[in-house]
Specification:
alpha+beta, Beta-lactamase, five-stranded antiparallel β-sheet, three-stranded antiparallel β-sheet, 8 helices, 12 strands, globular
Amino acid sequence: MDIADLKKIAERSRSGREIGIALLVASCLLGVFFLLSSTKKESPAPVAAAASTTPDAFANVQLQAKAAIVYDLTTKKILYAKNVDAQLPLASLTKLLTVYSALNELSPNTPITIPASVATIDAPRAFSTGQTFSLFDLARLTLTASLNDGASAISMATAARGNRSQGNMLAAAAASLNLAQTYAVNGSGLDVNSAVSGGYGSARDLSRLAGALVAKAPEIAFATTQGSAQAASTDGVSVNVKNTDPMVSMIPHLLLSKTGYTDLAGGNLALVFDSGIEHPIAIVVLGSSETARFTDGMALVDATLAHFAGISSL
């Protein structure tokens, strides 16, 4: 046997060892694989999420209003929406902006005198030229009975104090709350003419404005939840007015109520009530009719209460 033959045998031996080692390694790996496969637990099958069974309390709400909202002032969530960003005439809901603007700039004790220029303004009116009231009392009376002379007096006095026009003064108040769809040219919301309203805004904006006024002046807002309001001028003359909302006694835990109606606006309504402990809800109805604004508002109140009770209707 020569050297060449020995080399061939060695090469065959080395090749066989390599093949054997490779087979051994492969066998070991295969064994490990089967071992892991036999001990691996099967992953549980995904469980489908349970379908929500909470009924939609607003599903069957039917409104005459062009726009409406139910806005949770605590969570900042909209519970019901209909054309919430449509810019519509506000009528006397403008008075909410007027009073909010005044309270931004004046003390509640600021005396405000009824000017002669509002003596012939469209009704409802309740004051005589020269009478003076604190802003606090004048605001309570004005919002409760939707008084045009009172709102105009508040708006004029606030604008004069800042040496601005009423429009600019009201715009500043709207801007302070980021009310993008809201502006007014007078403090009462009375139509300027047959084509132009005294104030415009959206249901979304007005729900936030109503909530802001309740937070800023809860006692003034509370006056609007009563059947009537009373205050005396600085010279002792008492003024009594009736609430323009006939359903204030029907809404539990009411915090604010404001009505509005003009030819251009139709029937408007803004409400804030407490659905629980410190859980205020704002409801705004725009562009309804003079009577349907109240049935629209009540339908949304009932649906809201049903929503929080977890039922489809009351």
